[in-house]
Amino acid sequence: MATSVNDGRATAHGLDFDGFTGVASLLGDEERDIQLSVRSFAAKRLVPHIDDWWEAGVFPLELARELGELGLLGMHLEGYGCAGASATSYGLACMELEAVDSGLRSFVSVQGSLAMFPIWRATAQTSSVRAGCPTWRPAA
Description:
140 residues; mainly alpha; Butyryl-Coa Dehydrogenase, subunit A, domain 1; 3-stranded antiparallel beta sheet; two-stranded antiparallel ribbon; globular
């Protein structure tokens, strides 16, 4: 899928997702800020390289750290340095990643939902355990 960025908006095949869905008018300030932050990251860091990564069949491991620093890994969880964002914010972030490449969105979804959520849930019973744990970040 050909992806481009026009006026800061990620588009695929010329379709402006904001205009198509009409979602932008329903968002709060925090949701809009998260969406625009991910859109900006995608435009600057992902779009220029995604075709080369796809052709080479690679997922640059440094992206894990960058996505974590942006707050996207486990962003729907609270504690451990996670953002505690709303489901809407999580969906918007994933939509912006998906507009660039479905593999990037899948990475964020799987990391947060299949890897981090079970650990978070298992420790949710003991608030003292959660409070004493360090921030989750991808390994260097």
